[in-house]
Write a structure and sequence with these properties.
InterPro entries: RibonucZ/Hydroxyglut_hydro, RNZ2-like
Main location: mitochondrion
Keywords: Endonuclease, Hydrolase, Metal-binding, Mitochondrion, Mitochondrion nucleoid, Nuclease, Nucleus, Phosphoprotein, Signal, Transit peptide, tRNA processing, Zinc
Number of domains: 3
Shape: globular
Number of strands: 32
Strand order of the largest sheet: 6-7-10-5-4-3-2-1-18-19
Strand content: 15-25%
Largest sheet: 10 strands, mixed
Structural class: alpha/beta
Radius of gyration: 28 Å
Protein name: Zinc phosphodiesterase ELAC protein 2
Helix content: 25-40%
EC number: 3.1.26.11
Bound molecules: 2-acetamido-2-deoxy-beta-D-glucopyranose, zinc ion
Distance between the termini: 9 Å
CATH class of the largest domain: Alpha Beta
CATH architecture of the largest domain: 4-Layer Sandwich
Length: 799
């Protein structure tokens, strides 16, 4: 099965689809061709696709908000639509994504677009249409899109004068329901023409405009009706000229529902055609708060879909609606007005199924090695009681499907099973694993500080490793975050479950090393969730100290100006002012630095420039009690880090690539495993933990001879205390046993690579793989990582 929620680049997904479905392979191989063919398909040939389903991508949980995906197969060609609430979801087979519908504009609903569009861009999807509320469009013809990295671009907007979006598969109508942010009592219901934007491949995050007005829209797609089939055999029996040219017009007329006269005999369409299948309608309702109940429930456009008349009867209503809204009498009665044949799907925080079984499986197995270093993952459970609905309804689970064609039905076979016992059993059967686990038991550790690795991969988030984020638990009341890549909040949610609010409320300081997307794009989401946490715990609000390259303010200012208030959430301390010997020009900054130190019980917070991109920093924290923690961020081996971290207690250093790939590492300005260890040894650090592994080492990096008693590797959700240092190198043997197969494969690849290298003289850099230092210098870049496709595919298949 190709799992939908795999975080993969398009190239990989395309390859994957090829291997999985030879039937579709020709269509899939060439996306451009698919688009061309689609365009050249003659109009009027509309019989409607034979398979269409709606699938839940994000069930609406706090860490994986609601998002829905519509699949339609038109002949051999796939088409996809995406009703987005939150896009922190998977990079599903994005090659085929041609439409994205947003129900409203907010970080919650559109924040995931930045990552999504970076991926689309990486993978060269020719175009993708975004539809949604009016804020999507500025001045009707032009929209400014920003990405997270300050690249401003304009995209052409195609104004959509019809109130509907229509294509080969379906028609989507949008009904906006307004609710003025300033005066919630003043509610207007207005129709508007939706706008469609064609996104040029190189564009980035759209700029939500004027999102202070709460506007959301409903979408009700209706599949085109499918005409009945002509019963040729019966026609022949009736003496019609089947098999000759004369039959063509007769079939056409009959299918169109007309009565024809053949040789004086009247033939009614019902006699020779199976009944037509009217296109089922489904509604996507995003009703975020009680303010919208009235405009929703009194909307007359919708009433037509509630009557149960044959043509427009609604097959499915998707409620992206919180329990508090569902539980109102008005909403309940509105639900009851749909015919009893209508299915209701509810997507909100009242959902408890994990969406990433691979990560649960890994953590369950690692937990066998050490229950404290690898604590079990948790689920955030909302405190809202479930609404008592009066109509039958279905709660969303990840990857659940509702098929619209050929037959209306729920399909649960894609829902992944998450059976811990099975995972444990599987690991227990791995040769030597349990023996090695026994060997490394029996170590006790001191308490503080505690480090929780939230993301230990580089470049783009994947199922096993997410991108940079490390929580440092300084005391029982203070925590600090080192980098905040996309998905950091989700990781906290899965690590702490119901305690996530408590954790967020203790977070006072965030360090962002540099402005590559894998290190900072999770920040806005995290800040918004922190605010929510402080509110719900009834704690006083205070901004976080944000220690980051000052250029991050361009991004935050943009978001603040055009989307929603965010600046009050932070106090910026530019990283450059914490370098050794730096002059701090402003009194305000000076006092912020003092306050941040005091808050975290630190005597020193130092930064230094590193050798990566422009304005990339490492940092070092020295605690009152004497320990010193150094974090490299992304960098090639760098002496400034060594000098800053002399005799440090712990060095967390990036080790993006394996040994033997020094050239590539240098080109991308990253370190290899042994280079990272070398820095730690030069520094005389007491202990070294490696992170930021290329996603080609999703499960485990390759070990080198330089590994010694002072070196450990990190995993997402790994939690260590300083007392665990002696334990960490001991974990390596059971880890090697558990991942023996992967390690063997990687070693084989290394050998092949080395043989190739000796066979070919080194190239001059002009040919072969594309380089991107130029683009990199513009900063608008997800860090590139040419993931090894074969392995990725293999992994997917085996899992
Ligand atoms: C709309 O266009 C006018 C004139 O071109 C421009 O001055 C204005 O800033 C635009 N509005 C927005 C929101 O971009
Ligand atoms: C893409 O951008 C170019 C340059 O801005 C523009 O000429 C072209 O029309 C755009 N294409 C689409 C499909 O918007
Ligand atoms: C990485 O983040 C994504 C999106 O939040 C999530 O689906 C996935 O489970 C995460 N991976 C791990 C290892 O937790
Ligand atoms: C930090 O550690 C203390 C003691 O182990 C624990 O009570 C607290 O919840 C931890 N905080 C975080 C943010 O992990
Ligand atoms: C580091 O430790 C060594 C020996 O343990 C000592 O000689 C040296 O002065 C220390 N360096 C610093 C900068 O503290
Ligand atoms: Zn990085
Ligand atoms: Zn980087």
């Amino acid at each position: 099965v190709w799992s939908l929620s795999v975080w993969l680049t398009l190239r990989v997904s395309v390859r994957l689809m090829q291997t999985q479905s030879s039937r579709k392979s020709r269509a899939v191989r060439d996306t451009l061709r698919h688009v061309k063919v689609k365009e050249s398909r003659r109009q009027g040939e509309l019989h409607g696709p034979s398979t269409v389903y709606v699938q839940v991508l994000g069930a609406g949980s706090r860490d994986n908000g609601a998002s829905l995906y519509v699949f339609s197969e038109y002949n051999r060609y796939c088409k996809m639509f995406f009703f987005v609430c939150v896009l922190f979801v998977s990079r599903i087979k994005i090659a085929r994504l041609d439409n994205i519908f947003l129900t409203r504009m907010s970080w919650e609903t559109a924040g995931g677009l930045s990552g999504m569009i970076l991926t689309l861009k990486d993978t060269g999807v020719p175009q993708c249409v975004l539809s949604g509320p009016p804020q999507l469009c500025i001045n009707n013809t032009k929209i400014t899109l920003i990405d997270c990295l300050f690249l401003f671009l304009s995209a052409a907007v195609r104004p959509y004068t019809e109130p509907q979006y229509k294509d080969d598969t379906m028609t989507v109508s949008q009904v906006p329901l307004f609710c003025d942010g300033n005066d919630l009592k003043h509610i207007r219901v207005t129709h508007f023409s939706s706008h469609i934007m064609i996104i040029n491949v190189s564009f980035h995050l759209l700029r939500p405009y004027g999102a202070q007005n709460h506007i959301f829209c409903l979408m009700f797609p209706q599949l085109h009706s499918k005409k009945g089939n002509f019963m040729a055999l019966k026609a022949k029996e009736m003496g019609l000229p089947v098999g000759t040219a004369a039959i063509g017009p007769i079939i056409e007329a009959l299918k169109a529902g007309k009565t024809v006269t053949h040789e004086g005999k009247e033939i009614r369409p019902e006699e020779l055609c199976t009944p037509a299948d009217p296109g089922p309608v489904f509604l996507v309702v995003d009703c975020p708060s009680e303010d919208f109940i009235q405009p929703l429930c009194t909307n007359h456009v919708l009433q037509r879909y509630q009557t149960g008349g044959s043509e427009d009867s609604t097959a499915l209503v998707v409620h992206m609606t919180p329990e508090s809204v569902l539980d109102t009498d008005e909403y309940k009665s509105w639900m009851e007005r749909f015919p009893s044949s209508t299915e209701h799907l509810v997507m909100n925080e009242q959902t408890f199924t994990p969406h990433n079984t691979r990560s649960h499986k890994l953590q369950t197995q690692l937990n066998l090695i050490h229950p404290e270093i690898f604590p079990p993952l948790k689920l955030y459970k909302t405190k809202e009681p479930p609404a008592s609905l009066r109509v039958p309804n279905v709660r969303a689970e990840c990857l659940m499907k509702f098929q619209l064609r050929p037959k209306l039905e729920w399909q649960r076979d894609a829902i992944p099973s998450c059976d811990s016992e099975e995972f444990v059993k599987e690991a227990a059967e791995v040769p030597k694993f349990l023996v090695e686990v026994e060997e490394c038991r029996k170590f006790q550790a001191a308490k503080f500080p505690e480090i929780v690795f939230l993301g230990t991969g580089s470049s783009l988030p994947m199922k096993i490793r997410n991108v940079s984020g490390t929580l440092v638990n300084i005391s029982s009341s203070q925590s600090l975050l080192l980098d905040c890549g996309e998905g950091t909040f989700g990781q906290l949610c899965r690590h702490y479950g119901d305690d996530v609010d408590e954790i967020l409320s203790r977070l006072s300081t965030i360090f962002v090393s540099h402005l590559h997307a894998d290190h900072h794009t999770g920040l806005i989401h995290l800040l918004l969730e922190r605010e929510r946490a402080l509110n719900s715990l009834g704690k006083a609000f205070s901004p976080v100290y944000l220690i980051a390259p000052v250029q991050i303010m361009t991004w935050l200012n943009q978001y603040h100006d055009h989307c929603q208030q965010i600046l009050s959430q932070i106090n910026i301390i530019p990283s450059k002012f914490l370098c050794d010997g730096a002059e701090v020009p402003k009194v305000k900054t000076k006092s912020l630095i003092q306050a941040a130190l005091k808050k975290n019980d630190l005597v020193k917070f130092q930064t230094c420039y590193v050798r990566h991109c422009k304005n990339a920093f490492a940092c070092s924290l020295t605690h009152q009690s004497g320990w010193q923690l150094v974090f490299s961020g992304d960098t090639m081996p760098c002496d400034a880090v060594v000098n800053m971290g002399k005799n440090a207690t712990l060095l967390i250093h990036e080790a993006t690539l394996e040994d033997g790939m020094e050239e590539e590492a240098c080109e991308k300005r990253h370190s290899t495993t042994s280079q990272a260890i070398g820095i730690g040894m030069k520094m005389n650090a007491e202990f070294i933990v490696l992170n930021h592994f290329s996603q080609r080492y999703a499960k485990i990096p390759l070990f080198s001879d330089d590994f010694n008693g002072k070196v450990g590797i990190s995993f997402d959700h790994m939690r260590i205390r300083f007392g665990d240092f002696p334990m960490l190198p001991r974990l390596i043997r059971p880890l090697k046993a558990l991942f023996a197969e992967e390690i063997e494969e990687m070693e084989e690849r290394r050998e092949r690579r080395e043989m190739k290298k000796t066979a070919e003289p080194p190239s001059n850099g002009e040919s072969g793989t594309s380089r991107q230092p130029d683009e990199m210098s513009k900063g608008a870049k997800r860090e590139q990582d040419d993931l090894n496709q074969e392995t990725a595919i293999k992994r997917l298949k085996t899992n």
